[in-house]
């Protein structure tokens, strides 16, 4: 590789080189680093993080009530027990868990904060990636033998806000949950939360009580189910079993519940719908209009189920602290929102909990041997690599279960791949697409944020190993126990051993 040059064209210091480059210091990136240290302790690595702190989602989002909507026994790492009292917990506790894990495994010294990766370029000649990073307005280069992209799948700099007619006329405050001001006080204000997804279901009850009124305005309903904030089984197991064994048993139990619930909803949607409806009716005021406000047009788990811990949303409705309105916005007015039905909602503060914007691989430009990679023409191998892109893996969690269940499997398998290559003197692995495999959308999920971005994502295939599974236990067998040298992967040695290179240069 050519030496770096200064602004005057003179040779500069060689770029830092590591064995593995991890992009992102959020839940997935910190977990990946821990897996590397646990299973491949001799490998050098660096984590490039665009922001100035670790934590990713759990540091970025600061809105009232921010919490997990997955249980912490599966959202937590496989290798480090969750020790909190609540299974469904607040964002600050999750951030503490990530930071404590990083400290326990001495990860933070490997993080390069303020390094926004803008480009990744692969060279067969060197069998390595060159990462171009924007750091305080200048470009910095880092090279690596392999890359694991753990940047998540949505944009950090902005959330999704649809066209809101007349918004410029509104005299109050408008805020998106992704950019919650630290000094925003909703006490005594009339609040309208626009949206019906997980963020709205969290925010609306959390703002009740202090606000003069809170209205959750939704175009259409979402399935919302109550879940105990504490896991009674976990509490019992902790009293009788060693910590790690109790954690593993609870994690397994909850993973089974995730898969079983999803399968029930997909195979018996009418039964699932009735069960959800019965559960909701028992927690809402008598005569509440379930058909209008809690009965979606789609089947359960065609979109993600929303969880309300300890039925907080239903309790807020019963206490009169939260009102749900199902209608469409006609226009904003100086004093609130006029609905298509003619009703007016007075508001001082409008929260646009209208979703995320997906961004594949953090918006990083990929190049292989000088040719730009159009990710929309690639096919996902096991939901963790891209066809035609060497030594590159990524983490995208499950849509129907906890993110970390998949993140742990990907990191483990990535380490297995690296160990396999090292043991055989190989330095390159690339998934090679089978032309007979049909193309399908990357995510088979009807959520709006997914549908809006499908045209910018890779494809999945019509059969394994190109088909994305949504079943943790099937993935568990494949990622942890199946052979690494899959026929769909092409292994090679591109870079000459150092001894050969030295001899040829004499």
UniProtKB/TrEMBL annotation:
Signal sequence extent: none
Native source species: Rhodococcus rhodnii LMG 5362
Family annotation (InterPro entries): FAD-binding_MO (IPR051820), FAD/NAD-bd_sf (IPR036188), Flavin_mOase-like (IPR020946)
Lineage: Bacteria, Bacillati, Actinomycetota, Actinomycetes, Mycobacteriales
Top-rank taxon, per record: Bacteria
Keywords: FAD, Flavoprotein, Monooxygenase, NADP, Oxidoreductase
Protein name according to UniProt: Flavin binding monooxygenase
GO molecular function, one term: N,N-dimethylaniline monooxygenase activity
Named cofactor requirement(s): FAD
Protein family per UniProt: Belongs to the FAD-binding monooxygenase family.
């Amino acid at each position: 590789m050519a030496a770096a040059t200064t602004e005057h064209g003179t040779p500069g210091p060689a770029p830092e080189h590591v064995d593995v480059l991890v992009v992102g210091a959020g839940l997935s990136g910190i977990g990946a680093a821990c897996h590397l240290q646990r299973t491949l302790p001799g490998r050098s690595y660096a984590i490039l993080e665009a922001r100035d702190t670790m934590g990713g989602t759990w540091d970025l989002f600061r809105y009232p009530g921010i919490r997990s909507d997955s249980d912490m026994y599966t959202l937590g790492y496989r290798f480090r027990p969750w020790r909190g009292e609540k299974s469904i917990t607040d964002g600050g506790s999750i951030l503490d868990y990530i930071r404590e894990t990083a400290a326990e495994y001495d990860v933070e010294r490997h993080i390069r904060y303020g390094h926004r990766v803008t480009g990744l370029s692969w060279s067969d000649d060197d069998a390595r990636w060159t990462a171009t990073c924007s750091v305080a307005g200048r470009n910095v280069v880092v090279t690596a033998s392999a890359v694991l992209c753990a940047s998540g799948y949505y944009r950090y700099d902005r959330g999704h806000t649809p066209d809101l007619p007349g918004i410029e006329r509104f005299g109050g405050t408008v805020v998106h949950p992704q950019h919650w001001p630290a000094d925003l006080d909703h006490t005594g204000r009339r609040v309208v939360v626009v949206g019906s997804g997980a963020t709205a279901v969290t925010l609306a009850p959390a703002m009740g009580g202090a606000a003069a009124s809170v209205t959750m305005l939704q175009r259409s309903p979402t399935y919302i189910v109550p879940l105990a904030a504490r896991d009674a089984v976990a509490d019992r197991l902790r009293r009788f079993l060693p910590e790690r064994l109790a954690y593993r048993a609870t994690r397994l139990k909850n993973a089974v519940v995730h898969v079983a619930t999803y399968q029930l909803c997909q195979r018996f949607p009418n039964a699932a719908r009735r069960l959800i409806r019965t559960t909701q009716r028992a927690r809402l005021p008598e005569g509440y209009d379930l058909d209008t406000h809690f009965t979606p047009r789609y089947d359960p788990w065609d979109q993600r189920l929303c969880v309300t811990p300890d039925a907080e949303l239903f309790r807020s409705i019963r206490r009169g602290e939260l009102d749900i309105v199902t209608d469409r916005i006609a226009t904003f007015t100086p004093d609130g929102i006029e609905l298509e039905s003619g009703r007016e909602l007075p508001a001082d503060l409008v929260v646009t909990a209208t979703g995320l914007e997906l961004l594949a691989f953090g918006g990083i430009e990929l190049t292989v041997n000088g040719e730009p990679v159009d990710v929309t023409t690639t096919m996902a191998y096991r939901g963790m690599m891209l066809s035609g892109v060497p030594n590159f893996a990524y983490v995208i969690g499950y849509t129907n279960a906890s993110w970390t269940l998949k993140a742990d499997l990907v990191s483990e398998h990535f380490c297995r791949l690296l160990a396999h290559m090292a043991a055989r003197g190989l330095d390159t692995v690339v998934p090679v697409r089978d032309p007979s495999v049909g193309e399908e959308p990357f995510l088979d999920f009807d959520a709006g944020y997914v549908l809006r971005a499908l045209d910018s994502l890779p494809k999945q295939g019509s059969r394994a190993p190109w088909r994305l599974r949504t079943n943790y236990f099937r993935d568990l067998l494949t990622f942890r126990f199946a052979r690494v040298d899959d026929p769909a992967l092409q292994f090679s040695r591109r870079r000459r051993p150092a001894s050969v290179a030295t001899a040829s240069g004499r």
